[in-house]
Structures are given as C-alpha cells and as structure tokens.
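Lecture 7, part B: from sequences to assemblies.

Below are the input chains for today's worked example.
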Amino acid sequence: MLTRRIIPCLDVKDGRVVKGTSFVQLRDAGDPVAQAAAYDAQGADEICFLDISASPEGRSTILDVVERTADQVFAPLTVGGGVRTVDDAERLLLAGADKIAVNTAAIRDPSLIARIAERFGCQAIVVAVDAKRRGDGTWEVYSHGGRSPEDLDALAWCRRVAELGAGEILLTSMDRDGTRSGYDLELVRAVADAVTIPVIASGGVGTLDHLADGLAIGGADAVLAASIFHYGEHTIGAAKAHLAARGLPVRIT
Amino acid sequence: MIAIVDVCSGNLRSVEKALAAVGGAATVTRDAETVRKADKVVVPGQGAFGAFTRGLAERALEEPLREVIARGTPYLGICLGLQILFDSSEEQGPQRGLGLVAGTVRRFQPTDHAIKVPHMGWNQVRRAAADPLGDAIGDGAHVYFVHSYHVVPDDPRVTVMESDHGGGFCAAIRKDNVFAVQFHPEKSQRVGLALLASFVRA
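Predicted structure of the full complex, as structure tokens:
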C-alpha cells in the first residue's frame, strides 16, 4: 500500500540554509545541497526547499541550488517561495524540481494553479495554504508568509484549489508554526476530509508522536517538519521507526 | 548513446543525471535524427496525456519513435512514456495513443476517501512475471509514483510488475524490446538507480 511520507523542509535564503543545524558530519552545514543529500541518505521520502530570499538576486540563487541538488539527489524535490508565474515554475522544473509550491500568487490569481497544472500536469503543482484559527472555530487563509489575513475560509480555499487542478495541499497552521506543540489536528482533519487530493501537514512538530498524530489522527498523507530534523534531535530513520511502531505504513530504507 | 526524448518539457534533467550516476551516457533531445541513431531510447513524461501526444506531433517525434521500437532498439518508458504506448486514454478524452500495446489508460476511481488521487508517494511493487529489467527491483520494494491514470493492458501477460492503490494496477509492462514503468526510477533512490543501471548495461 501507499506509504505515508516524511518530508524535511529547508528554508533557503540567498542560496544558504537559514536555520542552524547540527549535522556534524557535514563540512558545510549551511549548504542546502549538502543537507538535501544528507536527508536523502537518511531515507527522506521527499525534500522541500522554501526560498525566503527577499531580493531578485537572492531568488536567482535557488535555481543553482536546485540544479546542484538534482545532480546528486534522486528523490522527489519540491520548491516553493516567490513563484508568481508559469515561467517561474518552468525555470524551477527545468532546473530539476519535481513540484512547485505556490501560495500568495495563487491567492491573487487562482488561475495560476490551473495554468501550471495544464502545462506541467497537476502532479507538479502544490498549493501551500497558511491557515489561522478564527474565534468561530473556522480557519482563515494568510498570505505573504503568514503576515496578511485574506478574509478567505481555509476549507473553501482548499476545495477550490483542488478543483483548479492542484496535485497536493501543503497545509501550515500559523497558530502552531514554531511552537513545537504539535500540528493543529482539527485543521488537518478538516482539510483531509474536504478534498480528495493528498494533504501534507505542517507547522508545530516538536516530537515524533506529533508526526504520527498528524497522519493517524489528522489523516494527512504526508508530514513536513523542519527543526526536529535540522537540529539533529531525530533522524528520518528514527522517525520512520516510530511511525511504524504506531502502525503507520512507512518506507523503511 | 542513450537518447532521452524531450516530448513535453519538464524535469528531464533528473533522468539524465540518474542515468549518468549509473554510468549511462545520455543526451536530452527533441531531434528526430538523434532519436533514430540512439543505441537506446528513454521516454520520460509527466503531465497530461493530450499535451504529450501534441508534443509528439509538434516535434515530429512519433515516427522516429515508432521506427526505433519496430527496429528493436531498447525502449524505457517512464510514466507517460508507458501510457502513450497504449491504444487510448480516457484523460480529457478519449485520446488516441500509439497503439503499440493493446489496452487503455484509466483514471483511478477510489470508493474509499482514504485513497487519494493523484496516487503520490512511495508504494510497493510486486513481481507479476520474470523480466531482465524488472528483476532489478526486488519483490516488495518501494518506488516513487505520481499519477492519476494507470494502464489497463488487454493481455495481462504484458504486465511484469503490479502495485495497489484501492485495488491492483499495472506498474510495469514488457513487450519485446519495450519496457515501461508507471513509477519514476529517477526519483526512487537506490531502487530506481538499480533499474536504470540494468537498462544501461543491458
């Protein structure tokens, strides 16, 4: 059967990994290519780069990072951050990315999702949705890296992007991101129940049980995490062993 | 030289690099003569079936591909490079394929909400028949899939690997010099590289 995926995510700025790491075996811990290769060696099911460069010059460095990663990492690679046009997506795909994540640009112009899906297939387009709880128990979509409220209901937006041809939803809880208190499981469950495309849970992982909960309770198809892997607390292999012990189907390498 | 046929641009670089990693000299090409002269041909492809068949027509690659397959040149199809071999696909269709393998391409129609479409991620394959290339992948190995449609051969004997996604489906076929897989060996880490290495050596 289809296994649940573990996806380590690296924030990249101006071609360098932003958050510190304790991959002691790496000669250059700030090199995203070296980190991606290390995660690949640990058995990561996919690797995600989120480009948070603020300038066009910084942005252009991600293409080189993607090319060098594709030279040596033979696992699926998702790249997001600053993708505004079909041409932006094409440049990343030709450089060696398998999937492109869009967020703010898709909120501004939802047809971007359909246009990328028509050109490269729905498997190539991931829509990243940043959601925050409202007082009434629903969730609101935020854009611009979680800074701007959009007065858009997260469940309605997720259904819409699925209809437009998104292949997958990368769902981040703004309430939980950075808290290490676990995924917003109600949010994950609500979205997983609302759409028929795969959902990646993100935001709030602090323990291996949080990963398992996102899959077993949230119903996510994949879990994305950053700090618990970057800081060397847990390897991908240890995480998979934990998920397997919780009865979840994983690929043990 | 192995020709990686650029029918419908996308991530072909990964296929080229994966072949290089196992010692295969390959070139990405949309040139008919290069395809005709190649020792081996790889046809990768993602995206929509219709866009792929249009790419074949616009780049005048259909005839060269038919020629090299008829001549016995080893052919490795990946994803749409598998589906295109069949008679037709129901994707935005029906749309006609090359008709080299009898059968159709159908969308997954899961009845269980837990079964998502696209089928995206790592799934196990099992051997349905012995095959010089297919045997490079062990029974029960995990490989990376990403697709919403799957092939349904009329003759079950062409199926050499199967997988499950809300029911069994054909994951790889063999017909003479043609071997084609639904999954992505170039994205399947060591398991995928083993398959590509067999293709390079064969």
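Note for the exam: Residues 56-72 of chain A form the longest helix (17 residues). Keep this in mind when comparing with the next example.
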